[in-house]
Model the fold of this input.
Amino acid sequence: MEFVAIDFEKLNKSQLSVCEVGLVVFKDGKEVGAPFHSYINPYGGLERNDWAKGNLSHISDELLLKAPTYIELFPKLQQIIQDKILVVHYKGADLNYIYNLEEHYNLPKLYLKWADTNEIASFLGRCENLSDLYSELFDVPFIEHHKALDDARACGQIFGQLSSQVNIRQFIHEEDYLPTEKKREFNATNTRHTQYGTATVAPDGLVFNYDKILDKYFFKDKKVALSGMSVINNNRIRSILTDSLGAICTSKPSRKTDVFIINQNNVGPSKRVDAIRFQQTTGLIVITDDYFWELVQG
Done:
């Protein structure tokens, strides 16, 4: 398995104020090639909040003024990441920054697959803080916390170590990361008349076809895609579909998919776009995981 561990530091509460980045490539559990590190001339100026004043003393204003901007660094980041798995520690930080920077600069997507060592650690009941988790796993103190390259390297080493304790592939996400505030936009649904009749519709046009599936026996011999659930919930639903109901499961919808089961709070925007397109062209049926459990338990 080849992956890239990445870490950003930022100056203030703005998601665009990233000021340092580090990337380390790993293959088969070992660091390969030269790591990449750069300071970043942050969007919006050099104002620091109290956290940055206390933790980023190694980054002077002079370094930042001489540094490239994120949009100038983007081609290099693309070159390093390419189609590798992007690994972070806590998606709500680094993936959030990437999402907002892509939106602000109208950039293409930086990565296709991602994993979060914080999520894996939580699943295993381990420390979730990067430095504490590193110390727990390797029995040595982690003293260079909040330096982007050191944090990226530690994140990659943690991912490799956790890979020996759990089936790591179940934590590799193909759906787009979506910030919490964007999820809220997709959460609100309303009932209105559509080309499918009266249906529950999300603001982006995704239709939930609850009237199309009335019992669990509908799934026999159907091709079913799942997305947006937790690892545990995904595995439970997949097991029921294949072992008990005779369905065939995939991770994303295609023209051959009959049913798409999603957690509407977490499914990525690209899969929503695909689902809307397939609803209009192939008659894809979309339901939520909550409705699936109603069918199974009812």
